Amino acid sequence: MSALMGGAASASDKRKALRDGLSSGSIQRLPGAINPLTAKLIQEIGFEGAYVSGGALSAALALPDIGLTTLTEVTAHSMQIAHATDLPVLVDADTGFGEPMSAARTVVAFEDAGIAGLHLEDQVNPKRCGHLDGKAIVPADDMVRRVRAAVTARRDPDFVICARTDAAGTDGIDEAIDRAKAYADAGADMIFTEALRTETDFEKFRAAVDIPLLANMTEFGKSRLLSAKTLEDIGYNAVIYPVTTLRLAMGAIEQGLREIHELGTQEGVVDRMQTRARLYELLEYERYNEFDSGIFNFTVEGR
Description:
Helices cover 48% and strands 11% of the residues. By secondary structure, the chain is of the alpha/beta class.
């Protein structure tokens, strides 16, 4: 029943898939999963992994992305998503929800939740969205301690620990490169440089850093939206589309609600909806029915 109620792959298998994917030479595409159903769709379409965005989760809770969510909230949400898919799930862990010891606890909690990897960032607490101005970063040595704590706490060697630096937006690309090298030396498996602006910026970072790199292709931000093929040709190993699914969904929801409010009926937007049949297909209703019929096929004798 476990495979029916969620993914069939074990957490260990998914972590190994992510780690192997990062060294495969093919870019790993991880759209943001805003809920478990979205994760199932991401898998069905054929992506290599799914991503849980801190910004998207904050927005879903009607909160700004300024570090207001807790480790408990993020772990519970991410666990539901990870259990719904055979894909590896990478999770935004912000600054590790506190000091280095908190980052270590975050790794343990995420491993227990079946998550394949996380990224930690070098912003101060409380953090803010990486594509907003006014960010502040901690001294590099403080972030090195965060990374070392996370690496030390890791029990599954395939659990991926990614270090994010926001230094490009505050101190320039050269500082971001220096920090990336320090974080790699501290044990990070992958580097995520936030808010690079141009293709040349991505190329410069790739030329300077030896370990796997993650690109963030978020809409309405500071980065030019490069294709996965372009990023792969540059040499990037993974790309996230963190808030894309939330923006698609909220755009459609707002349009539909406004039409219902204005016209008093949803008849004009029905053709834009996912059909009941398609929803049931994605939910695998038929498999549940087969399971139910195969197990609960007894009769009760007497009264």
